[in-house]
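Figure 3 (text version): C-alpha cells given as input.
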C-alpha cells in the first residue's frame, strides 16, 4: 500500500484528487493521512467525500475513513466499470473538482460512461464547468480522449443545484502532448452569464471584457450572453460569471475566468477575466494556469514524451507534480525559460487500457 502525506506542498484537496485517480488507474492501494491538516478546518470537505465515493463506485474500490472532516482514508481500487452514474454533491461544492478525480479514471473504462452531476458549476477557487468543455476538452481530444459536457442548470455559491450531463468515451492509451508555438491569436470567444439577476449584469461583464481586450490590441471577441427571464429562470440562487478563451493558430485554447460576488461590480468581473487571458497570451504560454495544473496526471500516464510551457509554477502545480511523480515513478523536468515562462517535460509510462476488449 502506498503511503501519502496529505500535508505536503500546498496540502490541499488536489493531493486527494490526484492520488485517488492515479491509484485507480495503476491498481495500487493507497493510504492518505494528514489530509488538509494545515487548513483552518482540516480533513475532507463534503465534495471530497463525494468524489472519492464516486471513484470507488466506478472502480469497485474498497474504501475506509471517507467521511466529513476525516484526515485519513484508505482506498483499494478494483476494475473500472462503464455505465450510467448519478453524482449529487448536495451543496455548492464544485462539479469541476469532482470531475478532476473521475475524468482520468473514466478514460480507462471498458465502455462509455455517462454522468449526471448535481452541485456547483461556477464556484470560487475552481475552474468553471464551461472551462472543462470549451478549453480542456480540445486539449484532451488531441491526446485521444473524447467527451462532451452539457450544463442543464447552473449552480452558484451558496445554493448550488447545478445540473451537468456528460458522456466520456474510453481510450486505448493517451497520446503525449507536444504543443507547437503559435504566431497569432485567430479568435477569442466567451460566455458571460447571470442567473436570478438582471440581464445587464452579464452584458456589463461582456462589455468590460471587450474593452480591456481591445485596449490590448487583441481580436474582437465573440461573447455569448446567457440570461434567463425571471418567469422561466430555473436556478436556485443568484450568480454570475464569465469565461473567455482564445484559439491560437496551434488550436490549443488559453483562457481566463472570473465570478461575480456581493460587492464586486460586473465591470470588475469582466476585466478580471480579460486580464487573466491577456497575461497568458503575453507570456507566450502554451497552456493556461487551470490547464497546466489539471493536465499533469494525464502527461504522466501518456505513451511518450510530453512538453508544455506555462507562465507560472504555482505551489498547486508543484504539489501536483510531486504527488504524481511519487505514485507513477515518472520524473517531470521543469526549466525556467524567462521570468513568466517555464517548460515542463516528462516521459509518460504508456498506460494501456486493459478494460477495453
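Below: residues designed for each position.
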Amino acid at each position: 500500500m502506498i503511503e501519502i502525506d496529505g500535508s505536503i506542498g500546498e496540502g490541499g484537496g488536489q493531493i486527494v484528487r490526484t492520488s485517488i485517480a492515479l491509484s485507480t488507474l495503476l491498481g495500487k492501494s493507497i493510504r492518505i493521512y494528514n489530509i488538509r491538516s494545515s487548513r483552518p478546518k482540516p480533513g475532507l470537505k463534503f465534495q471530497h467525500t463525494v468524489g472519492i465515493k464516486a471513484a470507488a463506485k466506478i472502480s469497485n474500490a474498497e474504501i475506509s475513513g471517507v467521511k466529513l472532516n476525516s484526515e485519513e482514508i484508505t482506498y483499494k481500487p478494483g476494475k473500472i466499470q462503464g455505465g450510467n452514474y448519478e453524482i449529487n454533491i448536495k451543496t455548492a461544492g464544485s462539479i469541476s473538482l469532482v470531475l478532476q478525480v473521475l475524468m482520468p479514471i473514466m478514460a480507462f473504462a471498458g465502455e462509455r460512461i455517462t454522468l449526471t452531476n448535481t452541485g456547483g458549476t461556477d464556484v470560487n477557487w475552481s475552474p468553471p464547468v464551461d472551462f472543462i468543455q470549451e478549453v480542456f476538452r480540445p486539449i484532451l481530444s488531441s491526446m485521444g480522449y473524447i467527451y462532451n459536457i452539457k450544463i442543464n442548470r447552473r449552480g452558484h455559491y451558496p445554493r448550488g443545484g447545478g445540473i451537468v450531463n456528460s458522456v466520456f468515451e474510453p481510450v486505448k492509451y493517451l497520446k503525449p502532448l507536444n504543443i507547437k508555438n503559435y504566431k497569432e491569436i485567430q479568435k477569442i470567444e466567451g460566455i458571460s452569464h447571470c442567473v436570478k439577476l438582471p440581464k445587464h449584469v452579464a452584458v456589463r461583464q461582456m462589455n468590460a471584457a471587450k474593452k480591456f481586450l481591445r485596449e490590448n490590441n487583441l481580436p474582437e471577441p465573440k461573447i455569448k450572453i446567457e440570461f434567463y427571464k425571471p418567469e422561466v429562470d430555473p436556478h436556485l440562487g443568484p450568480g454570475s460569471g464569465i469565461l473567455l478563451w482564445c484559439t491560437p493558430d496551434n488550436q490549443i485554447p488559453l483562457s481566463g475566468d472570473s465570478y461575480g460576488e456581493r460587492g464586486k461590480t460586473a465591470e470588475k468581473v469582466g476585466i478580471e477575466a480579460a486580464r487573466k487571458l491577456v497575461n497568458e497570451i503575453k507570456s507566450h504560454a502554451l497552456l493556461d494556469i487551470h490547464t497546466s495544473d489539471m493536465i499533469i496526471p494525464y502527461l504522466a500516464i501518456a505513451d511518450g514524451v510530453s512538453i508544455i510551457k506555462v507562465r507560472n509554477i504555482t505551489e498547486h502545480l508543484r504539489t501536483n507534480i510531486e504527488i504524481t511523480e511519487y505514485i507513477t515513478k515518472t520524473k517531470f523536468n521543469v526549466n525556467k525559460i524567462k521570468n513568466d515562462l517555464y517548460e515542463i517535460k516528462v516521459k509518460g509510462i504508456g498506460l494501456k487500457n486493459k478494460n477495453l476488449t
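The chain has a mean pLDDT of 95.
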